[in-house]
Amino acid sequence: MGTSPPDPQLSGLYQELILDHYRRPRNKGTLDDATHSVSLNNPLCGDEIDLQLRVDGDVIKEARFIGRGCSISQAAASMMTQLLKDRSIPHALALAARMSAMMQGDEGAARDKALGELRALAGVSKFPIRIKCALLPWNALTDAFKGER
Ligand code: ZN
User: What is the per-residue pLDDT across 87-107, written as a single tens digit (0 to 9) for each?
Assistant: First the structure.
């Protein structure tokens, strides 16, 4: 493992939420009956994500991940899996686009309640080197459905 760059200074409340997800990740683990599985890494930071989904028809019934890396990448994965449960695939991909817009500094996206706790990561958009950390799990998600639509 390399040394991760220092965490950007985000506002206290957001920093706490991110650290809470980092220390107690939601939906961490693997699925025995996964229909989709994608592994991605972010060599800039040393982050790794292995995303597993169980999709039934057009709906994501369950999302889990294993991974390691910086607090931003792991918190983003934890927050994302919370948001994906029982979403349709088009809805999930729309959220991925919204998240990407937020990371490009779109203020409308940063206020969009649809992104739930992920809005805590909006400040990361000011730290270009860390944007890939926040988007890593979302890139895994879009990769999972690449070629299907
Ligand atoms: Zn990272």
Answer: 999 999 999 999 999 999 999
CATH of 29-144 among 3.90.1010.10, 1.10.8.60, 3.30.300.30, 3.30.450.20: 3.90.1010.10
- 3-state class (DSSP) for residue 120: helix
Q: How far is the CA of 12 from the centre of ligand 1 (A)?
A: 19
Q: Which residues surround ligand 1, an ion (CB under 5 A)?
A: 45, 47, 70, 73, 133
How many angstroms does the Cα of residue 61 sit away from the middle of ligand 1? 27
Domain boundaries, the chain: 29-144
Q: Mean per-residue pLDDT for 68-77?
A: 97
CA of 48 to the centre of ligand 1 (A): 9
